[in-house]
Amino acid sequence: MEAGRSEPAAWPPALYGRDRERTLLDALSGPAPQGGGRALLLLGGPGTGRTALLAAAARTAAAAGATVLRTDGIRAEARVPLAGLHRTLLPVAPRVRALPGPYGAALAEVLAGREPSGGELALGAALSGLVAELARPAPLLWCVDDAQWLDPATLRALGMAARRLTGLAAAVVFASDEACPVSAALEGLDVLRLGPLPPDAARRTLADRFPGMPPHGSEAVTVLGLAAGNPLALVELAGAAVDGRLPEPPALPEGSRLRERHRERFHALTPGARAVVALLLCGGPLAVPVLECAARRRGPGAGAVEEARAHGLVEVRDGTATVPGRLLRASLSGLLSPADRLAAYGTLASVLDPPAARLFRALHRLGRSAGPSPGPERELEAAAGSARRSAGHAAAAAAWERGAEAAARPRTRVRWLVAAAADAQAAGDTRRARGLMRRAGAQGGPAPGGAPGALVRGEIELRDGVPAVACRDLTAAVGGFPADRRAPAVRALMLAGEAGCLTGDFAAFFGLADRAGALRRSDDPPEQRLVFDHFAGLAATFRGRHDHAQWALRRVVRLAETLADPESAIWAAQAAYTLGDAPRALGLAASAVHRARRQGADALVPAALVYEALCALALDRYAAAGAAAEEGLRLSEATGQRNLAVDHLSVLALLAALQGDSATAGLRLAAAERAVAVRGLGPPGAFNCWVSACADLAADRPADALSRFARMRGGAGQVNLAVRGMAAPHFVEAAVRCGQRAKAAGALRAYEHWATASRSSVRLALAHRCHGAGGGRRERRGPLPGGAAAPPRRRHRPGDGQDGAVLRLQAATHPPARRGPRPAAGRGVRVPAVRRPPLGGTGRGRTARRR
């Protein structure tokens, strides 16, 4: 009987991401190739889906008319010789008795509970005879699950039979834990290793099993990140999250099968190997020579590292050992007693170099103290600061978290958990920062940590939440710091201003700017002077006081060039961009990216890339702008900063529109719109209106463009002043083409004031071109501020009032239009017929590109 191909319905819907494995198992249960049967060893860690794949293969084979035989290893019988074979033979006992001569006799001995007298070779031959008998009427699929729990005698006999399938319509599939030593008994079999599910398959598995969980919600993101592609972990973590049983910090819930497998592996180790795991759990990644030296200090350590590695609890890459995976570390950390941790800290303090040993010496002293101990606490705080300077924010966060576990005083634990959250956020691990703040809240109330806690909560909300909430928390933090902690108070003020702008609440921003002016002192250090000048410059810009704004913003740029921190460089890039100095802003943004990466401040990289992309776009460097925005989008999502991801999506939408790809632009705008609406993001929403209005102008829909400009409001319902200023030339064109000269003239006056004060040659040229479009009258003809000659007044042509990028947008996305009568609303306005020859092939196109 020939086995057929499996139908998709025969496979459970949860088996996503296993197409390769499915194909191989389908081939096993299909027609036997020339030469006979096949055998396969399926290896994978706990929870990778070995049993599910075997069950699916069995269903496929049975549906095709094959005979299916199952053998399951049972740990309780792992030391009983031939117990696994005895259980396997019971369902086919009548066929055993039909075997001829010595084959039947040998297997009958097993069924009777006795070891065959002929030895292992006779038993293997008898088992091969049984396989031939079972495969005679129909193909046979023999599935052996949890082979690691079979007794050695059974495993060796099955291995002998699996290597003797020549000429038989039979297949044998073994599934085993990759960390258990079954390979010797099954030597010679093909091996298939199960890795983690790809991200898309993990998301589909989660949606299939838990359709009510929002696919992009915080719970789903947490579960997907923790599970790291392990199917069982996905199911157990999601189930706990839905039921409200997910522990804090996130780990496998009580009763988890995967957690029990982790525990079994750990307790199967010798004491020396368990000490190795404890050293890595307490000390983080360690060089292998250091780990071996520490293991010898703890006792007989010969082979301990290799034993822990063979059990899958230690991974060595490039000479560095670690416990792989957050879930495994969380499961094993719960098995360590305080005495285990104390011993590990003491050992690490004795073998590491003095700078690295400082932290573990402080932890060891904290663990040994019975009560509050100011000395060790000060030592740990100094060690955490040293870790930040030498290894970055992630190392500092780990130091604070370890200290919180060892601290005796609740207030100290809360303070250090908040400090760990601040460093985790700076390192780009927003989800971990949220978890640490939840742990601090469980011990310190709903608003733990005072002003530092409010600062951390506000920054998390600013990057990945609701900016209005962030503005509230950050404003509260400003007044909560004591007078001798002025630096964090000023930083909280700056972030509160950013949150006010992001939510579109410019009244709140002006209030914060006035507060910044009142806080200013003559002896402020450069970092704080930069913040105060930044507030003064932006507030003056938004109020239309451009003469005052330019001096403050230029001071911001000069101060940033004397500082080394990436945050100051980002704020200076914004100042230079506001001044219209795109080359200088690009240099500052690129410098901020470099500094942030060098200092381990990964959270700042996506923010710097926003300005790098915008400046490259302003300089017509489309490829560089696209690369910066795409990298920024990827890093924003990886670091859990979804508000910054919206900024990058908006830039990519504008880039697609400028390149004539309206479909991609629409998709990217649609992807950003939900976050804009739900979180009340002002500038991205206004920016998206601007992008759509540019597309309307390019498609000869000026009335639609003007309507979009009217809706360009921030999240607080106010007109977004920042984006409105940059979009003024396009507003002027839309108003002129709709015959609304008064509106065009009012917008042009404000824009020309800004252009004149900032001395930006690009903006000055745009202002003069707006005059040429009929947007207003200049009182006198003469040179531009700064000495540039004014372009001659000429008849309006489509695209006047736009930069070269938007001219290219028109040429790429709109065909030449026919001359026709003007609408009544536009009569009297000098708007000629639209003619758009392809740019680049004509003198006019080259001129537009240069301008």
Written account of the structure:
The protein has 851 residues and is mainly alpha-helical. It has 41 helices and eight strands. The protein is globular, with a radius of gyration of 35 Å. 53% of the residues are buried.
Q: Give the spatial strand order of the biggest sheet.
A: 2-3-4-1-5
DSSP, total strands: 8
Q: Which of globular, elongated, flat, extended, rod-shaped describes the shape? A: globular
Helical fraction: 55-70%
The rounded distance between the terminal residues' Cα atoms is 78 Å
Weakly predicted, low-confidence segments: 1-12, 714-718, 778-851
Note the main sheet. 5 strands, parallel
Radius of gyration: 35 Å
Mean pLDDT over the full residue set: 81
Structural class: mainly alpha
Strand content: under 5%
What would a concise description of this structure say?
The protein is mainly α. Helix 20 packs parallel to helix 22 (450-464), helix 22 runs parallel beside helix 24 (486-503) and helix 34 packs antiparallel against helix 35. The chain is built from 41 helices and eight strands.
